[in-house]
Amino acid sequence: GLRIHEYLYFQVLSPGDIRYIFTATPAKDFGGVFNTRYDQIHLVPADPPEACGELNNGVFIQDQIALVERGGCSFLSKTRVIQEHGGRAVIIADNAYDNDSFYIEMIQDSTKRTADIPALFLLGRDGYMIRRSLEQHGLPWAVISIPVNVTSIPTYEMMQPPWTFW
């Protein structure tokens, strides 16, 4: 049936300037679910960012989570590329860097292919700010916890990105 977006949350632990809790939405009709909580796992920006083929940094994605940029191929194709490189999940950020409020529904691409790892959609502004921070610090990845249960965090302790409206 029709449903409102479900949200999944993750927290950047490092670098410290983006130590916030981010909101993402799971793919609608493909990909796996998080049945494990990762307290400290690397969020590795894919190279090239769109992840539509072979990755230059695929070795760093093995057993980690990839940060991918929307565009160039289907959401499912990106998810499969990350899965083939041994990634545990993929977070696909919108390529509209000014998007700070509109979640896009990621759906199957009609190829009848499947993917087993979780695929999440991230607002463009959030993806941009994470990548920008990593570039400024010269870091190859961020350290995150995912998923985060926000219902157990008091509202006044919620570290939300200052550029995002919740």
Write the SSE topology:
Blueprint: E1 8-14, E2 21-26, E3 38-45, H1 58-61, E4 65-69, H2 75-84, E5 89-93, E6 119-122, H3 124-137, E7 142-146
Overall description:
The chain has helices at residues 58-61, 75-84, 124-137, and strands at 8-14, 21-26, 38-45, 65-69, 89-93, 119-122, 142-146. It has 166 residues and is α/β, with parallel strands linked by helices. The chain has a single domain, classed as Glucose Oxidase, domain 1. Strands 1-2-6-5-4-3-7 form a seven-stranded mixed beta barrel. It is globular. The chain starts with 7 loop residues before the first strand and ends in a 20-residue tail after the last strand. The model has no long low-confidence stretch (mean pLDDT 91).
Q: What's the short story on this structure?
A:
The protein is of the alpha/beta class and 166 residues long.
Oligomeric form of this entry? single chain
* Physical arrangement of strands within the biggest beta sheet: 1-2-6-5-4-3-7
Structural class: alpha/beta
- By DSSP (H or I, 4+ residues per run), the number of helices equals 3
User: From the alpha-carbon coordinates, what is the Rg to the nearest angstrom?
Assistant: 15 Å
The total domain count is 1
Give helix and strand order, one letter per element, not per position.
EEEHEHEEHE
Q: What is the overall pLDDT average?
A: 91
InterPro entries: PA_dom_sf, PA_domain, PRADC1-like_PA
Function: Plays a role in the modulation of physical activity and adiposity.
Domain PA: 43-127
Subcellular location: Secreted
